[in-house]
Amino acid sequence: MFSFRREIDFTGYTLIVPSVSVGNVPQLAVDVIIETLKLEPIGQLWHPALIPVIGAPAFEHEPADFVSTSAELYLSEEKRLAVLQLRAPLAGNAQQRAFLEQLADFVRDRHFTQVLLLASAFAHEKSNVRTAPFSYVANEMYERADDAGSRRLAEDGGRWTKHPGGVIHGGGFGAKLLELLTDRSVAGVLLFMYVSEGDNTTEGLMLARMLHTISGERLLPAGAQESDFRWPKSWQHLFGSSRSQVLVLSAAEAAQGFGAGMAI
Questions:
Q1: How many CA atoms lie within 13 A of 32 on its CB side?
Q2: 3-state secondary structure of 52
C-alpha cells in the first residue's frame, strides 16, 4: 500500500488524515500544514481505490522535478508528526472499504500514538446557530489518553462542540475510518467544520489554526505566530488565473457600443 523513500519507525507518531469532504476543506488545511512546516515527502500510497492523479510539485520546498500524485505521506521527525494528503476522492464502495481497512491496519501495526481525522460538513446541517462551526467525535482511547490535545478539546467548549451522533453529511469517509481505528484500539478523533461550497481557502486556513491548538501547538515552527501559516503555491490558481483587464475594457466598450446602437 505504501512505498517509502526510506524506512521510518512511526512508534509514538501522530498521524493527520484528511477525509475528502465538502469544499475540500480538510485537504486545504493539510496543504497549509505541509507548506508551513516544510514537511518531507516520505512516501506514496498505491491502491485501486485511489483515482490516478499526477502533477507538478505542490509546495515550494519540494524539488522542481518532484511529481505530485493521488496520495502522499509527509513527515516531521522533529515533531513526530506524519501527514497524509489525498488529492482525489476514493472510488468504489468495495475498494474504499478495503483502502480504509488497510490504512487502519497500517496505523495499528506501525504503532502510531493517535490519529487526527479532519473533515467538513454541509453548513445547512448545523442545527445550533449559536455555536461555533467546529465539532468533533472522539473514541474512548483518545478521550482517555493523558494528552494535552484531548484535554484542550474537552475544555474548549466555546469553540468545539461534541457531535451528538448521527451522519456527518458531506464528511466523506472520516466517521468510517474512526470506527475502524476504534476496532483496532487506536486513539482517534474526528475534527470537522461546517462550511458552504465555494472558495474555501479561508476555512482551510482556519481549520489548520484550530488543529494547531488541539495538537499541542505542533503545527508551527518554534517561536512562530498563528499569522505565520503559509499558503502553498498550488493555491494561486485554484479558480483559474485573474481576469485580463484588456478583456474587461473590451467588454465594457462593446456594451457601450451596443447601447448606442439600441438608442438609434
A1: 27
A2: coil
In the numeric block, the cell 468510517 is attached to 176
Domain count, the chain: 1
Q: Which residues pair with 134 in a beta bridge?
A: 160, 193
Q: With a cut of 80, say whether residue 250 has pLDDT above it.
A: no
β-pairing, 40-45 with 71-76? antiparallel
Judged against a pLDDT cut of 90, whether residue 41 lies above it is answered with yes
Residue 164: all three cell numbers together: 451528538
More confident residue, 26 or 251: 26
Say if residues 21 and 121 touch (Cβ distance below 8 Å).
yes
Domain that holds residue 24: 2-232
DSSP tally for the chain: helices H, then strands E: 7, 11
240 occurs within a structural domain: no
Nearest to 39 by CA among 100, 227, 206, 8: 8
Instruction: For residue 48, tell me if it sits in a domain.
Output: yes
Task: Give dist(CA 102, CA 176) in Å, integer.
Answer: 13
Cell numbers that stand for 9 in this block: 519507525
